[in-house]
Design a protein that fits this description.
Blueprint (H helix, E strand, L loop, with lengths): L7 E5 L6 H12 L3 E3 H9 L2 H8 L1 H17 L5 E3 L8 H10 E6 L3 H8 L10 H18 L2 E3 L2 H9 L1 E3 L7 H4 L6 E5 L1 H15 L3 E6 L9 H10 L7 E6 L1 H13 L5 E6 L2 H7 L4 E6 L2 E8 L5 E3 L9 H18 L8 H18 L14 H10 L7 H15 L5 H7 L8 H11 L6 E8 L2 E9 H9 L5
Parallel strand pairs: 1-3, 1-4, 2-3, 4-5, 6-13, 7-8, 7-9, 9-10, 10-13
Antiparallel strand pairs: 11-12, 14-15
Helix pairs in contact: 1-8, 2-4, 3-4, 4-5, 8-15, 11-12, 12-13, 13-14, 13-15, 14-15, 14-17, 14-18, 16-17, 16-19, 17-20
Bound molecules: nicotinamide-adenine-dinucleotide and zinc ion.
């Protein structure tokens, strides 16, 4: 997704940290092949403990170095799991720096020891020796790694170039890749609250600041035209979009098109942007004929998410985001909406990032993110985008999706309290059919099955219409 998405993802860390397990989970989540260097080595040289004892550490490190080099030189992107001592090789560290996003899976000493004690690993026979080596290795992992991860969600976010951290706005200057000039784009409201912090954090790299109108007004050709003409960056510059989803969609599209595309970094400030809009590289603007009709896939160089910024978000805007959070929780099958902000944002962002890494151009599985949205879009269109917000429409759409999936609707009703909207039933049905063609009296929807979301589930048109009708007041 990010530029980082093209490199291998290498997992380093101490013996017993859980690299192989995490590597397997990460590979599945992001849809990349897994290369476990120790396992490949064992196929070549037989059991590693035996080789180690017979030939000594130096000879083992030499064959290990060759095996790592072999794995990292392969093309395409894989998840490469390295043995605990592999990074002691300077040649390996150099190769990692060039060909991989290297993640250090950090685990505490006793957790590692508990996993390996009593086994046959030559360097895990004595606790004191194991502890000493643990301390010796830490600075080496720190030097080799681009980031530290604790679990698979951290690893997915790192693979996607999404940086989630409380206080990240204060470090924005360090988080914008490269060293070229930066243009800061935000809406007047967000600029008034967080603009100064962003400017201070960008420091001398900040070359220009721009404003887009607030809300959907940002996503118009007129606003884009003004921004295109104001921008002074050359091709080495980076556009930083500080704001909610309207700002990141419009500014991201400006970055996709200005000088045929320059680097950009969304710094997401609304809940909608932090869990959804700023992740996955979709940028664009609206046309009078409909929303998001002109745009481009343009992956950010990095996405910056600072959950602390949600503290200034108005309650109504928070509810907009909670609709997407509930959607994500239903897709994951966990009540993510119960988590505190930092964890809620981290988990939801990681879910979307993984889906987008598996299907970067929205050709298949990414459709699951549309859970409830067929109904939502129909209601929004029937209301002519007035009097019903996207979040309210999604809440209703989720209700319909749950009912058609034969699921408990309580989470949606309790959390989002969706109220039926007074729109014209025929108009809503027409809009839904424009969105989704009926084939043989059936429509294809995203629904929840027993083992998670399913796309393209055929549902009789009459059932879809009945479910839509239940969302409409009067
Ligand atoms: N590209 C995608 O994949 C994607 C996904 C979902 C939604 N979107 C788009 O996102 C847009 C909606 O995003 P949104 O709801 O964030 O809209 P928005 O950008 O208009 O932000 C909502 C409001 O909240 C204010 N705000 C934002 N952050 C704040 C903060 N920290 N403190 C105080 N106020 C703050 C903004 O000034 C604005 O008034 C829609 O246009 C939608 O199409 C895009
Ligand atoms: Zn949505």
């Amino acid at each position: 997704m990010a530029a980082a998405g093209l490199k291998h993802i290498a997992l380093v860390g101490y013996m017993g940290a859980g690299k192989s397990t995490l590597g397997g989970e990460l590979a599945t989540r992001i849809g990349a092949p897994l290369v476990d260097v120790d396992a490949e080595l064992a196929e070549r040289i037989g059991p590693i403990p035996d080789y180690f004892r017979e030939r000594g550490e130096a000879e083992f490190r030499a064959v290990e170095e060759a095996a790592v080099a072999d794995a990292l030189r392969r093309s395409g992107r894989s998840v490469v799991v390295l043995g605990g001592g592999a990074v002691t090789s300077a040649a390996t560290r150099e190769l990692l720096a060039g060909r991989a996003t290297t993640l250090w899976l950090d685990a505490d000493l006793e957790t590692c020891w508990a996993r390996v004690r009593g086994g046959d690993r030559p360097l895990a026979q004595d606790h004191d020796d194991f502890a000493r080596r643990y301390e010796e290795r830490r600075p080496i992992y720190a030097e080799a790694a681009d980031g530290v991860v604790r679990d698979v969600d951290d690893a997915v976010l790192a693979a996607a170039g999404v940086h989630v951290e409380r206080g990240a706005l204060q470090r924005l200057g360090d988080l914008v890749p490269g060293s070229g000039a930066v243009a800061l784009v935000s809406d007047p409201h967000v600029a008034g609250i967080h603009g100064v912090d962003a400017q201070l954090a960008l420091g001398p790299r900040l070359a220009e600041t721009h404003e887009l109108p607030p809300g959907e007004e940002a996503k118009t050709l007129a606003a884009l035209d003004r921004l295109w003409q104001e921008l002074r960056l050359d091709r080495t510059g980076t556009l930083v979009a500080l704001g909610g989803g309207c700002t990141t969609d419009a500014a991201g599209f400006a970055a996709a098109t200005y000088l045929r595309g320059i680097a950009w970094v969304p710094a997401a400030t609304s809940l909608v942007a932090q869990v959804d809009a700023a992740i996955g590289g979709k940028t664009g603007i609206d046309l009078p004929q409909g929303k998001n009709l002109v745009g481009a896939f343009h992956l950010p160089a990095r996405t910056v998410v600072d959950p602390a910024l949600l503290e200034t978000l108005p309650a109504a805007q928070r509810r907009e985001g909670m609709a997407e959070v509930v959607k994500t929780g239903l897709l994951v099958g966990e009540p993510l909406w119960e988590l505190r902000d930092d964890e809620l944002v981290r988990r939801c962002a990681a879910f979307k990032a993984a889906v987008c890494l598996r299907d970067p151009h929205d050709r298949g599985e990414r459709k699951i993110l549309n859970l409830g949205h067929t109904f939502a879009h129909a209601l929004e269109a029937a209301a002519a985008y007035e009097g019903v917000t996207h979040g309210q429409a999604v809440a209703l759409g989720l209700l319909a999706a749950l009912r058609l999936s034969g699921r408990d609707t309580a989470p949606v009703e309790e959390l989002l309290r969706p109220a039926p909207v007074p729109v014209d039933r025929e108009r809503a049905w027409q809009a839904l059919q424009r969105d989704k063609k009926t084939v043989g009296g059936e429509l294809r929807l995203v629904l929840l099955g027993d083992d998670g979301p399913r796309i393209d589930v055929p549902v009789p048109a009459a059932d879809v219409r009945r479910a839509l009708d239940e969302l409409i007041a009067g």
